[in-house]
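Example (one chain per record):
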Amino acid sequence: MDIENKRTVTICAGVSGTGKSTFALRYLVNAPLAIRFCFDPDGEFADRLGLEPAQDAYGLGLALCNSWVIFDPHGIFPGRINEAFAFFCEWSFTVSESIPGRKCLVVDEVWKYCTPNAIPEELALVTQTGRKRGLGLLVNTQLPNKLNGSILNEVSEFVCFRLQQDKALEKAAEYGFDVEEVKALADLQFVARNLDSGGELRGRIKV
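Predicted structure:
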């Protein structure tokens, strides 16, 4: 456990097709991470990366050797997606204690598994104390306004692709983004703000 680790909670927000998923995948591929934990109920991570997902306890343990743990929850938890999500958060947090280096838990549309007023204890554990085990959180979402306050309060970096929904834009404005700029971003363009340093970066994903 390393209490000196900085928090790493990243929100990547944007409407569908603007590039947020590609941004997240490129970050995971290029960042110096020991393990990437991907919750993948729709199979998107497995398909885009060309990797076999883990579907049981044996597969999860085996995947740790390859630095990519892509979890298809339907094998162990058929029809019980919320239970599967809580399990994977807790498992990722637990195994991170014995793995040196930086790790990252990645979830698409995490608001599906919590509400603005309630969050699974297992996710709160990752969000609030994961840094002590070198475990960060990366969430992709079209609706940042639906994220739970426990996540929003711990955000270290916010990456905005184009947003259109009024409440989503209001949430981006709360974190210092220019609403008109965010609304006008072209596909694959983004603005990123580091909320600890105050730094800002503009860029475009190359395809």
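Caption: The chain has a mean pLDDT of 92.
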